[in-house]
């Protein structure tokens, strides 16, 4: 755990209620241990969050040995989103996290342009900040390619479901369920962990359940709408998951025999828009910053 006595600064934010503790650490000085992440994310002992976003220069993370190399499309001076799940595990990408990260960089003056690249373990992710103030931003993330990895099965919510394994930098199983209504989706019990075949999913997977996308009249440039819930690897059910929304949109379009389209998705935490093209996917949605603060020294010591 961190030995420095300087107070640990943080911010708190969320993207469609997928919430994060943001730790500014430009030179990657912080020893971001599993214990530190889990106590920060604990909703009783810490600040409470689905994950942690460390804000560091990519080159500093390489120098500190946190990253072995710079991922594709990431330059040493790029701001890198060092993402950790609430259980302390490392994930390759976080779509909602990138929106919140970009908002944080913009409001704190780390970045002075509206278009820049955020580093992630899955590679560089170009962002466009359409609008922002201290509290709210509207951000599009170029999420890169969407790769289908074949069919998969899962036991979840007392049901056996099949879906598409989808790689969006991190692994997903997106289950588009025939006949499922938004009300039926809302009634599912997602408190228990999904049963996944460990040989089929050696890295585990985030599991999405969604309704079959329905066509719209093209209003707001959206071709289809669907409702989605997600059980995240390393977290549990969250109110939104950006990479999961991209995986779900791509699987939903595929179910309709389409490789491209714009899907408006509703999740328990809000709504986003996903554009799937042959070249890659784009995720557009809100970011909210809710606090900037300082942790009290010793906060991470065993608390009872
Ligand atoms: N909430 C994220 C995804 C975070 C990582 C995920 N739990 C994993 O382990 O892959 C998002 O918005 O994409």
UniProtKB/TrEMBL annotation:
Coiled coil: none annotated. Its main location: cytoplasm. The active site is at residues 94, 241. Keywords: Amino-acid biosynthesis, Cytoplasm, Isomerase, Lysine biosynthesis. It is found in: Cytoplasm. SUPFAM superfamilies: Diaminopimelate epimerase-like (SSF54506). The record marks 172, 232 as: Could be important to modulate the pK values of the two catalytic cysteine residues. InterPro entries: DAP_epimerase_AS, DAP_epimerase_DapF. GO terms for molecular function: diaminopimelate epimerase activity. It catalyses: (2S,6S)-2,6-diaminopimelate = meso-2,6-diaminopimelate. Its EC number is 5.1.1.7. Catalyzes the stereoinversion of LL-2,6-diaminopimelate (L,L-DAP) to meso-diaminopimelate (meso-DAP), a precursor of L-lysine and an essential component of the bacterial peptidoglycan. Belongs to the diaminopimelate epimerase family. PANTHER family: DIAMINOPIMELATE EPIMERASE, DIAMINOPIMELATE EPIMERASE, CHLOROPLASTIC. Homodimer. NCBIfam families: DapF. This is Diaminopimelate epimerase. It comes from Gordonia phosphorivorans. The lineage of its organism: Bacteria, Bacillati, Actinomycetota, Actinomycetes, Mycobacteriales. The gene is dapF.
């Amino acid at each position: 755990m961190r030995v420095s006595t300087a107070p640990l600064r943080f911010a708190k934010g969320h993207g469609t209620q997928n919430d994060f503790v943001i730790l500014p650490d430009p030179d990657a000085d912080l020893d971001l241990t599993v214990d530190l992440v889990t106590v920060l994310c604990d909703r009783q002992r810490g600040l409470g969050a689905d994950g942690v976003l460390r804000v560091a220069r990519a080159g500093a993370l390489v120098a500190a040995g946190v990253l072995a190399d710079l991922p594709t499309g990431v330059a040493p001076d790029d701001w890198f989103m060092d993402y950790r799940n609430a259980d302390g595990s490392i994930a390759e990408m976080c779509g909602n996290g990138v929106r919140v990260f970009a908002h944080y960089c913009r409001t704190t003056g780390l970045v002075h342009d509206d278009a820049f690249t955020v580093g992630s373990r899955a590679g560089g992710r170009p962002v466009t900040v359409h609008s922002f103030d201290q509290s709210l931003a509207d951000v599009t993330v170029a999420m890169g390619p969407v790769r289908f990895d074949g069919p998969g099965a899962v036991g979840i919510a007392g049901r056996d479901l099949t879906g598409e394994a989808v790689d969006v930098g991190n692994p997903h199983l997106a289950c588009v369920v025939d006949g499922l209504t938004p009300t039926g989706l809302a009634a599912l019990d997602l408190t228990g962990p999904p049963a996944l075949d460990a040989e089929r999913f050696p890295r585990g997977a985030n599991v999405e359940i969604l309704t079959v996308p329905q066509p719209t009249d093209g209003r707001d440039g959206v071709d289809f709408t669907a409702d989605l819930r997600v059980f995240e690897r390393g977290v549990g059910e969250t109110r939104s998951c950006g990479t999961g929304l991209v995986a779900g949109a791509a699987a939903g379009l595929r179910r309709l025999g389409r490789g491209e389209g714009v899907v408006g998705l509703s999740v328990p935490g809000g709504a986003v828009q996903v554009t799937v093209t042959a070249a890659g996917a784009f995720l557009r949605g809100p970011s909210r910053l809710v606090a900037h603060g300082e942790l009290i020294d010793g906060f991470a010591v065993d608390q009872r």
